[in-house]
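User: Structure tokens for this complex, please. No commentary.
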Amino acid sequence: MDILDYDFMQRALLASLMVGLVAPAVGVFLVQRRLSLLGDGLGHVALTGVAVGVLTSTSPVWTALVAAVLGAVLIELVRARGRTSGDVALAVLFYGGIAGGVVLLSLAPRGQATNLDSYLFGAITTTSAQDVAVFAGISVVVLASVALLGQRLYAVSDDEEYARAVGLPVLGLNVVLAALVASTVVLSMRVVGLLLISALMIIPSAIAQLLARSFRQTVGLACVIGLVVSVSGTTTSFYAGTPSGGTIVLLAIGLFLLVSASVAVRDRTARRRHRRKVDVHDAHPHEHGDDCGHPPVPHGDHVDYDHDGHRHAPHRTGEGVHYDEHGAGPVGAPPSRRTG
Amino acid sequence: MKDSPPTGSPAIELHSATIGYGDVAIVRDVEVTVAAGEAVAVLGSNGSGKTTLARGLLGLAGVLDGQVRVLGAPVGGLRDPGRVGYVPQRHTISGAVPATVREVVAVGRLARLGLFRRLGRIDRSAVTEAVAAVGLEDRLDDPVASLSGGQQRRVLVARALAAEPELLIMDEPTAGVDAANQEALAAVLTRISAAGTTLVVVTHETAPLAGVLRRAVVVDHGRVAYDGPLEQAAAHEEPGMHHHPPAPRPSGYRQDQPRVTTGPRHDGDEER
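Assistant:
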């Protein structure tokens, strides 16, 4: 493949592989915690770090890492202290971050590489060999932390109050998660871009949620999806000459729409089949229960109601309850379990 | 298995304790001591402060004045994780990301393992046993979102049971749970109470758990109005509190809760 003949493309593909794998692994916890936009905010903060790096002629990757992690810790401390002021404090930090970045970058001496677009939206030509090494280090640290602390992070993201009540170190785990997000943001600054990284954290998770049954499955699937859209988006951007970050995110959104539509069609088909398979009382005059006058009849793993010689089995769906016909008359020995 | 506290050392001590949020006091001057192994109902009408009292024991509401000690340590200080179990007053598990019953209940067990230890074989079987104890073992690997409201309540109970805590604090564990499963819950609580677990149950209906709970603390307008045997508590409660159906449904009661038993009963497999 000629795409791999270019050194910069090899590095870009490596970087996209790492960010594609790592971003969703962290993002699932943010979605669970309903803090989807934390990555976006930390991307803003990282820009100030980038500017400091450019101005002081140090590697912007390192200065961005320092700025993003500091911002992340600060955000968690603000969040832990109170709610009402927290929201405003976050806004100040986030927009302060991007404003500081833009102003500082404008002060950079002429001739400095200050291509703001490439930091914000990603560019395939910018990844240096040194960047790849730093990214690899970050990826190992983030993935190892998720593997080691994943269940605790899940516990805190799922039900923070319960975690606190039973004595888990909630603040510590929240700070760790925020620091992982900050590191992932930095991982994104070459290929995906600081303004778009949040999408690569959140959208693969959103797609995986539609398909998975467990949290573990969601994490695994989200990582695979992230990897695929990230690498294929980078490749596409090489051939189409488009910015890599935008291309990757559009691919992810396209996949999200496709999967959402397929799931909706699948659910509708399943519902229609269910209706065809069993007689369904859509408009049942009342809800069967202890006091409805129809005797309950145990039937496998559930209870039917003997409704004038028919056995009605309650079937609860997202839209409410309807009754399936489970044969005529009460039975002595219930037939084997059937789905209904 | 469980480190039993030294004999006679109380599980809970409240000395002229005032509990609230921010600087707003909700319950005042509480003077209650619960010995290890007791089973106590916290009763009171809506807004009486009974939930705040329980949350104060968990460090979820602030101790504004006085002393609150739980399992020998002041609330809010460092505590061995996993010794206190908690069933929140929540009717559903509403995580954005799918999770199975097993995964949610495993979180309960996780609390006692510290920061890095993974669930071992004993922990995993404790998780399955806790799920079986609430009658949901055939739903272990189903997403919790596919369960009814009452079943999700039972998952939250299983999560607390999985830790095998020394002190179990439950907020309305029977609300929205059908009669058969209320009985099953009473059986589980009877068993762990007999094994020495201290129980604190915040509730508006004592009937389902009357066989387990011996003592009642009645909270009224932010003060303890009665503390004594459960049977005599009724006289000290406000009119309008009912112990028998048909009671007015508590706020937040979900209409879509099951009125039929959806899982097999578990009267037989109570041993652990």
